[in-house]
């Protein structure tokens, strides 16, 4: 069996993985694995931007307060304080790495999005994620100590027992081209495998967002938290296909208005902040309007912004709408909510360490405690940079004391390369539908329970498919089967946390308990794998 030895293994090529790799590579050798091509990451699709206090009339206190308010009581204040105060430096670091943000009159242009009390969204037109990803990938490609392996999917983490304590010692990784499992032996590992929203049938995320980081961490024994807090973005272009085209909240920041089937602007009747209310409130309002009208979508009217400004600031959105026959300069855009972001994930301390020694996590697959029950818009790219950099520093401090890479006697992962493809696709479709129907924007206990039962059946079906595998083996099929297992594991974690929380808070709204219950639930929903 092939193996590779390295100082540090990074799993994922989004903003967190790349930032982290660039930091640690000054002092250590890095292997960075990504399951598709390097540009295929959630980061690449981010339109909005990165929140940071850069205006003289803004303040750290206000950004902290906005974040805490959106988080509905569950943000960890120390983590938020660290996030916000590190914002300006994080933006400066990105600029140093070659990211070009939009500017006017010699200053970075600042937008505003829902839940923010002041303009503070640094952006690159409406393609911020792509601008960041392209610049960081270039820096990584030029770095002599980083080896980037595309089409390599992490299947399981290696854990070894050292002086009575389990620690992470790397991962088994599938080379999709050769269909071979490779043991990557590392002294320390970062999970930065991105989001999970592909477990829903309508999502703004690409199909790669299958929760790999959370599933890998959880199966290896790391604690996971707050999985019930799935953020639905209120405005995806209708019809929302499996990978729905996002209509950035920044458009509402510039003055676009949500209208119902009768053409009435409805947000002010739900929240005083109207279009700029936090995302959970806007998504629920859209959901309520759809229920009321029975229509398949509401409208986002950006016509008052003016054609010139739209062309300058939102060329990507105009293009995406045009591809579906909508001229957003002249007519309202049909929009619906779609699953967008996981606020929970693998639990970390303030320096990105998980509960499994040797394993760190950053980016969307991590739960650093900054988002609480609802993430403030554009805080996620910021969190990815700030906490990846903190994780890098802490890992470098620990590295001299970490054991060298070596074999761990952990058996190679089971060969899943012969799973029948058509059945896999059907199982995947049904899983997404279960999550959409039973764990959506508005939940009910009976629905959650039904979702739990169906997911158990799907999990059993996955195991039985494994037993009847017959087709000739290939890496794509193996990766599909492994992704589906991850999706099932993550979906079951969502159900488990949603079932535990008998209240409504932030993104978790359950009709049986429509109020917050601070007495019992002003705390994270923690899942320890041995439970
Ligand atoms: C958006 O542009 O609306 C999405 C930004 C985010 O998710 O923070």
Q: How many β strands by DSSP?
A: 22
Give average pLDDT, whole number: 94
How many structurally independent domains? 3
Shape: globular
Taking the alpha carbons of the first and last residues, their distance comes to 34 Å
CATH architecture of the largest domain: 3-Layer(bba) Sandwich
The largest β sheet comes out as: 7 strands, mixed
Helicity, as a percent range: 25-40%
Treating each run of at least 4 consecutive H or I residues as one helix, how many helices?
A: 15
Low-pLDDT stretches are none
CATH fold naming of the largest domain: FAD/NAD(P)-binding domain
At the first level of CATH, what is the class of the largest domain? Alpha Beta
Bound molecules: succinic acid
Percentage of residues in strands = 15-25%
Radius of gyration: 22 Å
Name of the CATH superfamily of the largest domain: FAD/NAD(P)-binding domain
Helix/strand structural class: alpha/beta
Written overview of the protein:
The protein has 15 helices and 22 strands. It has helices spanning 15-24, 60-70, 77-85, 87-96, 128-142, 212-220, 250-253, 279-293, 307-313, 315-323, 379-398, 421-438, 445-467, 475-500, 518-521, and strands at residues 3-11, 30-33, 50-51, 103-104, 107-108, 110-111, 121-122, 146-149, 152-162, 165-175, 180-191, 224-225, 230-237, 257-259, 298-301, 333-342, 345-347, 359-361, 366-367, 442-443, 509-510, 526-527. The protein has three domains: 3-228 and 343-401, FAD/NAD(P)-binding domain (3-Layer(bba) Sandwich), CATH 3.50.50.60; 236-337, Alpha-Beta Complex (Flavocytochrome C3, Chain A, domain 1); 421-511, Up-down Bundle (Methane Monooxygenase Hydroxylase, Chain G, domain 1). Strands 1, 2, 8, 9, 10, 11 and 18 form a seven-stranded mixed β-sheet that branches. α12 runs antiparallel to α13. It is an alpha/beta fold and 531 residues long. A hairpin with a 2-residue loop joins β4 (103-104) and β5 (107-108). It binds succinic acid. The site of succinic acid (SIN) has 9 residues, from loops.
């Amino acid at each position: 069996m092939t193996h590779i030895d390295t100082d540090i293994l990074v799993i994922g090529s989004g903003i967190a993985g790349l930032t982290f790799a660039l930091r640690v590579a000054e002092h250590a050798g890095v292997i960075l694995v990504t399951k598709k091509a390097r540009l295929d990451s959630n980061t690449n699709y981010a339109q909005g931007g990165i929140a940071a206090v850069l205006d003289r009339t803004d303040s750290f206190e206000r950004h902290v307060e906005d974040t805490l308010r959106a988080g509905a009581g569950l943000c960890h204040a120390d983590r938020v304080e660290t996030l916000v105060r590190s914002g300006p430096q994080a933006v400066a670091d990105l600029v140093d790495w070659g990211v070009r943000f939009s500017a006017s009159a010699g200053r970075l242009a600042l937008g505003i999005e829902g839940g923010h009390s002041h303009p503070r969204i640094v952006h690159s037109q409406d393609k911020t994620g792509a601008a960041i990803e392209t610049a960081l990938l270039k820096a990584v490609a030029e770095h002599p100590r980083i080896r980037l392996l595309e089409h390599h999917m992490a299947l399981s983490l290696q854990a070894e027992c050292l002086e009575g304590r389990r620690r992470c010692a790397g991962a088994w990784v599938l080379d999709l081209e050769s269909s071979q499992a490779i043991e990557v032996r590392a002294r320390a590992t970062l999970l930065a495998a991105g989001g999970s929203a592909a477990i829903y049938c309508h999502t703004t995320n690409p199909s790669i967002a299958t929760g790999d980081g959370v599933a890998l961490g959880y199966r290896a024994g790391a604690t996971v938290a707050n999985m019930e807090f799935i953020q639905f973005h209120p405005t995806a272009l209708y019809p929302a296909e499996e990978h729905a085209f996002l209509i950035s909240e920044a458009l509402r920041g510039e003055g676009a208005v949500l209208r119902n089937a009768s053409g009435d602007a409805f947000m002010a009747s739900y929240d005083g902040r109207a279009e700029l209310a936090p995302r959970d409130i806007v998504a629920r309002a859209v959901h309520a309007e759809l229920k009321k009208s029975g229509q398949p979508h509401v409208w986002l009217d950006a016509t008052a912004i003016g054609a010139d400004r739209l062309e300058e600031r939102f060329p990507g959105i105009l293009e995406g709408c045009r591809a579906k026959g909508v001229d957003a300069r002249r007519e309202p855009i049909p929009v619906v909510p779609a699953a967008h972001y996981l606020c929970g994930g693998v639990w970390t301390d303030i320096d990105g360490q998980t509960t499994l020694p040797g394993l760190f996590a950053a980016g969307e697959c991590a739960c650093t405690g900054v988002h609480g029950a609802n993430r403030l818009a554009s805080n996620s790219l910021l969190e990815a940079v700030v906490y990846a950099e903190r994780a890098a520093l802490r890992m470098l401090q620990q590295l001299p004391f970490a054991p060298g890479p070596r074999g761990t006697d952990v058996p190679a992962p089971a060969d899943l390369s012969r799973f029948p493809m058509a059945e896999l696709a059907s199982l995947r479709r049904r899983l997404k539908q279960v999550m959409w129907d039973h764990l959506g924007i508005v939940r009910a206990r009976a629905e959650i329970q039904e979702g739990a039962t169906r997911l158990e059946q799907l999990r059993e079906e996955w195991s039985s498919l494994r037993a009847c595998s017959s087709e000739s083996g290939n890496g794509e099929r193996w990766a599909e089967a492994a992704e589906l297992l991850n999706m099932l594991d993550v979906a079951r974690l969502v159900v488990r946390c949603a079932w535990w929380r008998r209240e409504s808070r932030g993104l978790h709204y359950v009709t049986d308990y429509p109020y917050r219950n601070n007495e019992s639930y002003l705390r994270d929903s923690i899942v320890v794998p041995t439970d």
